[in-house]
Amino acid sequence: MDKLFRQRIQLLFFIAFTWCIISFSGCDSKTDNAEPTTGKLTLHFSHKIDSESIVFDDMRYVNAAGNHYLVNEIQYFISDVTLFHSNGTSLLLDQWEDIHYVDTDLPETQNYIFKDDIPQGIYDSISFTFGISEEKNHSLMFVNPPESFMFWPENLGGGYHYLKLNGKWLNELNQEAPFNFHLGIGQIYHSYPDSITSYVQNYFTVHFPVSAFGVKAGETQTLELVMNVENWFQSPNIYNHDTYGGDIMQKQEVMALAVENGWNVFSIEFMTYK
């Protein structure tokens, strides 16, 4: 009797164990075969003048004001990238990194790889903040270079530069002179250079259509975001280095002209999947 009882118990245990294995295997198989419903997005940054990649440190360019100039380096922040779906909804991409630093001397900064899972579908426009919003632009939030080198002086409003576009131009004496075309928080003065009465937030939103690009499930969409540098110096304002000089950090009226010109500095050149 004991032997028969033990055999029955062993049989029941074997059946139960086998059922568990089959059940778990079935669940794993079902999970493995599940179709993805989201994709990924990468922004690749490039920098051009007159539709050609910039040749740095070469006095070959002429702006709309007739200034001969060269570019040494470009550094800037973009933030709060948002996709707009064809059905009218929007998606803020901020799951991992909502502020991205771009530096023409550092190739590794020229790809913004979003960690967000983006629902598959058609998106017909994209927007981002050029610079950093007032809500987020806090001093000392970047403790390591290169981002920490973008600090904006505390007495001028603090936080960080939105843009450093550094180069040289041939001035009215036909001599090379440095220019620092920098954007950040502006100041309104009671009497220059002291007695600041208020600050101006010079970040701005870039929002443009992208010819209805699709995000495919399980794939990465790459958009090339081009900075057309010549547009900083034209449309609607002709920017003359001889008029405005080499530094604009404490010249809010000049930074305001640059902000107005920023509306068409960026464009999307091509789209790829991988």
Give the class from helix and strand content and strand pairing.
alpha+beta
Q: Helical percent range? A: 10-25%
Radius of gyration using CA atoms only: 27 Å
Low-confidence stretches at least 5 residues in length (pLDDT < 50)?
Answer: 14-31
Number of separate structural domains = 2
- Which word captures the global form? globular
How would you describe the overall organization of this protein?
The protein is α+β, with helices and mostly antiparallel strands and 274 residues long. The protein folds into 2 domains: 34 residues; 236 residues. Helices cover 16% and strands 42% of the residues. The chain contains 3 helices and 16 strands. The strands form 3 sheets. Strands 3, 4, 5, 6, 9, 10, 11 and 14 form an 8-stranded antiparallel sheet that branches. A hairpin with a 5-residue loop joins strand 3 and strand 4. The protein is globular, with a radius of gyration of 27 Å.
